[in-house]
């Protein structure tokens, strides 16, 4: 799409896409909880009250694990309506919920059998570890505890993403061990033929969703499109754009504002991947990413040879025009956060205002393109420069009075915000102070968990 091409227009659904997706997701959770509780109420209890409680927690461990897998399955329908960042946050907190249910289940199991046999808990623990089906469950629980500890914020800051990811990958082993444990251990969901069919069908659906979203779909898209580098264009001393082409690019299902996880084969190791936004709306011929040199992988992009094969996962993200509620839009960008904003400007129609925050005019990446697009779209474009807080009066463009002065009708606009965390948080705080409706505020963290 060029600066003179026409923006896309879409009919607005009666129910906001995010609201619909969340309603579907939570309906699935509630329905399966009700089924689980019904099965538990109709089944025989454990050998004593403590073991009955352990059984209750154990059933919920499995259901929570299913929900956690669904959240990170990267199903396009969910991802484009809720966004990977929110789904990942829900996955994180679901993981800590899973941890406490696992601990409770294991604790009540040990206490229940210790009471039943009249032995101390430590002796019962080692006795249970000698039973194969229980050993599988203990091994799965141990892995879950290790991964949860590595995911605590303090620990997460002390290790690299690659190390954390390798530890997190152990959850697939925990999943396999947990499934074996469920298969060998008689439980409520195996009390009748119907409950057994229900339970394993549920597991089959969840595992199919995970396999499709995380493995099958990315492999299929890369085989179908066969991405490769078409051009590498330096935008400044520390910013570069990479143009990627391939086969059947007119069938690529991406939209402006989305991001992809990129691997340039031969440029870095397989596990060194980066999420970069599309800095131009997909045009049926090429995709473009624009990256700032903030790490070894992104800094080396300007040296990637033309013709390099690319393995790209995505597109991901809900930071798209699909979520607009009106024809009036405010696009706010800071630094290299201009990349998805620039692509949205290219795709959106209607009354548009763009605010671009940069330290100096020289730091305004893609500025000439923005000017051309703004002129073609009839959009108002403001470059906000200078150090925040400097001068008299202080330079604070995103304080409520200043933002309202720049965009007097801001409460009637959809607002898309992308930039450094400090800037994004300041803008969101101001939007709340100005009483911009929550449904009109759109922001997304582009990155890994």
TrEMBL record:
CDD domains linked: FNR_like_3
Keyword terms, alphabetized: 2Fe-2S, FAD, Flavoprotein, Iron, Iron-sulfur, Membrane, Metal-binding, Oxidoreductase, Transmembrane, Transmembrane helix
Cofactor: FAD
Listed transmembrane segments: 20-40, 52-72, 93-114, 134-154, 166-184, 196-217
Gene3D superfamilies: Nucleotide-binding domain of ferredoxin-NADP reductase (FNR) module, Translation factors
Domain of life: Bacteria
One GO cellular component term: membrane
Membrane topology: Multi-pass membrane protein
Localisation: Membrane
GO molecular function terms attached to this record: 2 iron, 2 sulfur cluster binding; flavin adenine dinucleotide binding; metal ion binding; oxidoreductase activity
Keyword Kinase attributed: no
Domain spans labelled FAD-binding FR-type: 222-322
InterPro entries recorded: FAD-bd_8 (IPR013112), FAD-bd_FR_type (IPR017927), Fe3_Rdtase_TM_dom (IPR013130), FNR_nucleotide-bd (IPR039261), MRET (IPR050415), OxRdtase_FAD/NAD-bd (IPR001433), Riboflavin_synthase-like_b-brl (IPR017938)
Protein name, as recorded: Oxidoreductase
């Amino acid at each position: 799409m060029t600066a003179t091409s026409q923006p896309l227009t879409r009919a607005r659904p009666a129910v906001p896409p995010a609201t619909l997706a969340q309603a579907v997701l939570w309906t699935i959770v509630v329905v399966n909880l009700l089924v689980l509780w019904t099965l538990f109420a109709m089944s025989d209890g454990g050998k004593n009250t403590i073991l009955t409680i352990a059984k209750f927690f154990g059933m919920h461990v499995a259901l929570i694990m299913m929900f956690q897998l669904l959240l990170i399955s990267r199903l396009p329908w969910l991802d484009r309506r809720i966004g990977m960042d929110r789904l990942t946050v829900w996955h994180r907190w679901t993981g800590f919920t899973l941890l406490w249910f696992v601990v409770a289940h294991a604790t009540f199991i040990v206490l229940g059998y210790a009471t039943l046999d009249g032995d101390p808990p430590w002796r019962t623990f080692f006795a249970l570890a000698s039973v194969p089906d229980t050993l599988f469950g203990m091994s799965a629980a141990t892995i879950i505890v290790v991964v949860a500890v590595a995911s605590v914020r303090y620990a997460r800051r002390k290790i690299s993403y690659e190390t954390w990811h390798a530890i997190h990958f152990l959850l697939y082993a925990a999943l396999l061990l947990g499934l074996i444990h469920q298969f060998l251990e008689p439980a409520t969901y195996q009390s009748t033929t119907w409950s057994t069919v229900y339970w394993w069908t549920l597991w089959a659906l969840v595992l199919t969703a995970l396999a499709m979203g995380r493995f099958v779909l990315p492999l299929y898209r890369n085989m179908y499109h066969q991405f490769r580098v078409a051009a590498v264009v330096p935008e400044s001393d520390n910013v570069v754009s990479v143009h990627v082409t391939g086969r059947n690019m007119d069938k690529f299902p991406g939209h402006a504002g989305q991001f992809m996880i990129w691997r340039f084969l031969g440029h870095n190791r397989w596990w060194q991947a980066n999420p970069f936004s599309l800095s131009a709306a997909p045009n049926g011929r090429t995709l473009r990413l624009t990256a700032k040199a903030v790490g070894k992988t992104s800094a080396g992009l300007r040296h990637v040879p033309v013709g390099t094969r690319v393995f790209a996962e995505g597109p991901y993200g809900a930071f798209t025009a699909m979520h607009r509620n009106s024809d009036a839009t405010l696009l706010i960008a800071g630094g290299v956060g201009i990349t998805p904003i620039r692509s949205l400007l290219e795709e959106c129609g209607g009354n548009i205002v763009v605010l671009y925050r940069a330290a100096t005019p020289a730091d305004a990446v893609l500025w000439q393109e923005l000017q051309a697009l703004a002129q073609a779209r009839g959009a108002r474009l403001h470059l906000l420069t200078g150090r925040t807080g400097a001068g008299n009066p202080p330079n604070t463009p995103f304080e409520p009075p200043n933002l309202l002065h720049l965009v007097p009708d801001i409460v009637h606009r959809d607002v898309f915000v992308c930039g450094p965390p400090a800037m994004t948080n300041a803008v969101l705080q101001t939007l709340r102070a100005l009483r911009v409706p929550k449904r009109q505020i759109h922001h997304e963290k582009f990155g890994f968990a």
